[in-house]
Amino acid sequence: MTTTRRNAICLVACAGGAATIAGCSSEEEPAAEFRIPTSEVPEGGGLVRDGVVITQPTAGDFHAFDARCPHQGCAVDEVTAEAISCPCHGSRFAPADGSVVQGPATQGLSARTATVDGADVVVS
Fold it and tell me: Taking the complete model, does pTM exceed 0.85, yes or no?
């Protein structure tokens, strides 16, 4: 891995006993495939889990994206009806398709496959 300023800060902070620094979790690799109950994904919003964003913009319409912001690799951390937000530099993405709503990111979030199987959303 290339040492970046952010990685160096995270290493120093973590070595110093800091519990969480925004962006330090960006190195988390997304799970290859997992299930989550549809009831845990808020309608008109979503959640971030295991390096993946799962959204439900409208009832029964599920989408999934890698949680890594394409701007500088920080992990997005908030999903609302309006946007998926990155805490590092303020990029915002559309919950329905992961496209850029507000920069500095110039590319959208990488799409994952989200299918419903019974009472679960299966992300692959």
Answer: no
